[in-house]
Amino acid sequence: MIYIYGAGGHGKVVFHTFTSMGKTIAAFLDDKANRFLCGLPVIIPSEVQASPASHIHFAIGNNRIRHDLQTSWQQLGMIPASAIHPLSILYPSATIGHGCLLTAGSVIGPDAVIGSGCIINHNAVVEHDTHIGDFCHIAQSAIISGGVNLGTQCFVGAGSVILPYLTIGKHVTIAAGVTVPHNLPDYSTFPPRM
């Protein structure tokens, strides 16, 4: 049984990804409880925090919040579960960390490394020999070219492209629909805000 923490739109994507894998979801966890989502109850997180060795996925789009939740719940003995849609492509030599989401149409190329708690959204491509740091969110149809090194907790906007062999620092935000032609430092935004 798997719990999904987060009962919003992202939680629905995670639910359908897990069910497409043949997995059974126990319930959604959310502070806004006492309702149903996808036919399952939404309960408050404290109801399952003491359940040792339960599997959980954090369906939270915000990288920092997802990191904080997954880290604290792991310390309680909960096991982060990765959701990998059957219509995603994960090359045999690629590796992914705990608690990741690979949605339908996503592609993870040969020898790519995806850190823990990452979201690789619909039709996003992470090419060969790329390293994605922990708790990054690669939005819909974004392309991370070969050999890129992306730091922790980065957000790559929908339809954006990072050119090959670049180094992107940690906590970087990349806008939707842009092409990144050069390295970016930690905590930067591209394009820069005026």
TrEMBL record:
Residues 89-182 form the Mannose-1-phosphate guanyltransferase C-terminal domain. Gene3D superfamilies: 3.40.50.20, Hexapeptide repeat proteins (2.160.10.10). The keyword Transcription regulation does not apply. The keyword Acyltransferase applies. Pfam families: GMPPB_C, PglD_N. InterPro entries: AcTrfase_PglD-like, GMPPB_C, Hexapep_transf_CS, PglD_N, Trans_hexapeptide_repeat, Trimer_LpxA-like_sf. Residues 2-69 form the PglD N-terminal domain. Keywords: Acyltransferase, Repeat, Transferase. Belongs to the transferase hexapeptide repeat family. NCBIfam families: NeuD_NnaD. This is Acetyltransferase. It comes from Thiothrix lacustris. The lineage of its organism: Bacteria, Pseudomonadati, Pseudomonadota, Gammaproteobacteria, Thiotrichales.
